[in-house]
Amino acid sequence: MSEIKVGIIGFGTVGAGTAACLLKNCEVVRKRTGVDVKLTRVADLDITTDRGVKVPRDILITDAHQLIRECDIVVELIGGTTVAKTFILEALSQGKPVVTANKALLAKAGKEIFEAAEANHVSVHYEASVGGGIPIIKSLREGFAANRINRIYGILNGTCNYILTRMEKENMAFDDVLKDAQRLGYAEANPSLDIDGLDTAHKTAILASLAYGEWLGMDPVFVEGIRDLSLTDIRFAEHLGYKVKLLAILKQAEDGRIEVRVHPTLIPAGKPLAGVSGVFNAVMVNGDFVGDTMFYGRGAGREATASAVCADVVDAALDLANKVPTRIHSFLPGAEYSGLIPMDDVTTRVYMRIPVQDKPGVLGKVATLLSSYGISVAELMQSSPDESGNVSIILLSHTAKEKNVQNAMAELARLSEVTGKVVMIRMEDL
Amino acid sequence: MSEIKVGIIGFGTVGAGTAACLLKNCEVVRKRTGVDVKLTRVADLDITTDRGVKVPRDILITDAHQLIRECDIVVELIGGTTVAKTFILEALSQGKPVVTANKALLAKAGKEIFEAAEANHVSVHYEASVGGGIPIIKSLREGFAANRINRIYGILNGTCNYILTRMEKENMAFDDVLKDAQRLGYAEANPSLDIDGLDTAHKTAILASLAYGEWLGMDPVFVEGIRDLSLTDIRFAEHLGYKVKLLAILKQAEDGRIEVRVHPTLIPAGKPLAGVSGVFNAVMVNGDFVGDTMFYGRGAGREATASAVCADVVDAALDLANKVPTRIHSFLPGAEYSGLIPMDDVTTRVYMRIPVQDKPGVLGKVATLLSSYGISVAELMQSSPDESGNVSIILLSHTAKEKNVQNAMAELARLSEVTGKVVMIRMEDL
Questions:
Q1: Hey, are the CB atoms on B146 and A287 less than 8 Å from each other?
Q2: Which of A50, A168, B5, B132 could form a disulfide with B40 if both were Cys (CB 3.0 to 4.6 A apart)?
């Protein structure tokens, strides 16, 4: 089998890791799969900085167009949604398969990119866009090919999970952990993409699209980040037997409609997902035949992401070598989708913390109000009075409709007995 | 794309599940992957018993040879190592790809079967042979294609894990749980294949072969089952912060040699594998780039196994449709193997329980003896005296060589102060 030339555009963290992996393990790949992949080009505007990987000097170039012309497989690892897209479309137009880890771009422009791939009879591979080193995309469309996907729950952002884990384990406030995470390099200087849930939402949009056969983009994804999460609620949740995770949630109802959401979520402490700590990612998939499964691994970082990128390179190389460039299509629409459930209509259990005056009749008033919105209480506790003599009512509800929960919260906020912000965190029993 | 005819030989539990999955989800498969797989034949000697799945009457036949002639993909689900092999070789000789869940047969005769596949330019697919519905084989050779596999730890037998979980959680003795498991259908009337570790060893041999590129068969697999495991040791392990699991263990040393073993193992209670309860399976893989990963799911049962069988059917169908019948070869030898580490040379930490007379000097004597074999103690506790006034010394060692541990145990058994059987369980810190 002849040598397949691989070029990497973008010599940053993941680019350098991918180069290192291809250089170190090309022989393993050849023996394990029969294909001979060779890193022949790396393109970056800066080819002088030391990236900690010994790449032969003569393969480093600054011209990505040259790389695209000269290579059989183009790996896009520059990120962002502008130049990256240009290069991907250029490679596809020349009939070159593309490997990318660019979830933001796929969430935004996946449809256009996949159409270009189909028009040119090649595939775009994007295992590294979700769950880092975890082969979740391959599992979803090949390993579970014969399953209807009932539910997916994912911890998909290592930064958020790291922050939540430290808040919980070290009893630290959100802001303090965030500052420390930034100092340690676990969070960006501008952390919004991670902590406001957008990165998780990009990945959720990709998983939802693959599971349900409609490239959804970001619009239908309901997103709430972890910025406003307080240690108080993590502690109360723990007391009630739950952990708080930023969860990607996908579900399909009996009628085929789906819900797609990302928000802090109380999950039972004994479940496998609850044990996923620090920067690790995990994805739980429930299929109609396979039942519950979970995948766990490093969701980011140079080496783990490189592992996924290189797996895609191998797949693309096998397909090139066998002259079946669209064996697995970038995306096949149509399977399972029959519309979205609007967030207002989604039903969940919820955790609520309601700060109130500590006087007779308040609990009854709150319970009556909730009940009038169809929200019934499954568990209830009350905190000790704070320095102002106020208490908090903490409750877990039975299943309730989002719209009713929102309306109830608005009405609670207007009660004179309610002394502060009402906190609500949705729950999943998994 | 034309219709691909699928035939199932063996209409037992998994056969019926596979038929149900293909019948129910063929449309999902078609939309998700582009291939049109159709169940056209099911062969069994008994085609009158109701299997709980509505298969069109006219596809049921008793003649497996006819099925092989008429179908494009042959699914072998009769089990055993005699007739199953004959049918598989017959299908291969006619150039038909084969899907099987038969770990015993592959562990025994994999080499011969894969050679026949190569000779006929087709592939044998066996995702369902390890880990039930978990796509571990696909992940190992495709998802982690660019990784050197440093370590694999697996909980691969649902029956054993079910028994161990109930012993631990319900404080029941092995024999009592086994009897109950047999009554409930979680264990066979003859449970030896499961509880003596053979089934796990079959699966371990397959994983080892794939990870290290040498089809090993059963000979090099060191096997100890759970039959002799006592509740006492599960309790002491728990007290020390460990759980006891029947673990498949694969490791590659710096020099390329590997160790392959199956035995009850103490693992830290906080690790993800320790949380795998009941009939669930899990496989932890550490690759040089991907780092630690874990896969979790149902390791057996009609539906989960059918999910894996059908994923293989889809793969085989894609390859047929694209005319690349050996895109992924059944097995490619040669990658990473440079010999075995004999069990005597394997080093592990160990748990020991040594029943001794409760008198001065005994502890010192035991410690001195262990030390003379290079076994040093990391943690130590002593039980309260039993009705005969004897106590147990319970210890966790630092890393020690298997041969030294065995010799030390033999010498301990000869001490007059030792009043009963010395128990040893190996440990892994994962």
A1: no
A2: B5
Residue B332 lies in a domain: no
Name every chain B residue with its beta carbon within 8 A of the beta carbon of A290: 133, 297-298, 303-304, 307-308
User: A273: closest CA among A234, A309, A242?
Assistant: A242
DSSP classification of residue B185: T
| Domain containing residue B174: CATH number | 3.30.360.10
Same domain, B182 and B154: yes
How many domains is chain A built from? Answer: 3
Q: Which of B232, B263, B298 is the last residue of a domain?
A: B298
Beta strands A347-357 and A400-401 are antiparallel
Question: Do residues A145 and A227 share a domain?
Answer: yes
Cβ B307–A147 below 8 Å, yes or no?
Answer: yes
Query: What ipTM was reported for this prediction?
Result: 0.94
Q: How far is B318 from chain A (nearest CA, A)?
A: 7
CATH number at residue A86: 3.40.50.720
**B38-91 tens-digit pLDDT:** 999 999 999 999 999 999 999 999 999 999 999 999 999 999 999 999 999 999
Residue A139 sits at the chain B interface (C-beta within 8 Å): yes
On whether both A125 and A190 belong to a single domain, the answer is: no
- Sorted by sequence, the CB contacts under 8 Å of residue B223 that are 6+ apart come out as B196, B197, B198, B200, B201, B261, B262, B263
Residue ending a domain, choose from B298, B331, B351: B298
**Pair B72, B171: CB distance under 8 Å:** no
- The mean pLDDT values, 10 residues at a time, for chain A of 430 residues are 91 97 94 93 95 94 98 97 97 98 95 96 97 96 95 97 97 96 90 97 96 91 97 97 98 95 96 93 97 95 96 97 91 83 97 95 95 96 90 97 98 96 97
CA distance A67 to A43: 7
- Contact yes or no for A287 and B296 at CB 8 A: no
- Is B400 found in the same domain as B350? yes
- Tokens 């990709």 locate to A206
Residues B122 and B176 in one domain: no
Contact in structure between A162 and A279 (CB atoms under 8 Å): yes
Partner residue opposite A293 with nearest CB, options B127, B133, B287: B133
In Å, how far from its chain's centre is CA B209? 13
If pLDDT is split at 50, 70 and 90, which confidence band does B335 have? Answer: low
Q: A281, A284, A274: which is closest to A238 by C-alpha?
A: A274
Any idea what the Cα angle at residue B234 is, between residues B231 and B239, rounded to 5°?
A: 125
Q: What is the DSSP letter of A377?
A: E
Query: Is B289's CB within 8 Å of A17's CB?
Result: yes
A residues 210-229 closer than 8 Å to B (CB): 213
Range of the domain at B141: 136-298
> Considering only residues 2 to 61 of chain A, which have any Cβ-Cβ distance to chain B shorter than 8 Å?
17, 21-22, 24-25, 28-29, 31-34
Nearest-angstrom CA–CA distance, B400 and B348? 6
CATH of the domain at A363: 3.30.70.260
Strand A377-382 and strand A390-397: pairing?
antiparallel
CB contact under 8 A, B147 and A307: yes
Do A107 and A168 lie in one domain? The reply is no
Strand partners, A242: A268
DSSP string, B159-171: HHHHHHHHHHHHT
Q: Are residues B368 and B423 in the same domain?
A: yes
Note whether residue B72 is domain-resident.
yes
* Residue of A421, A313, A411, A307 lying closest to A369 (CA atoms): A411
The answer to whether residue A312 is domain-embedded is: yes
Shared-domain flag, residues A103 and A225: no
Q: Is B144 on the interface with A (CB under 8 A)?
A: yes
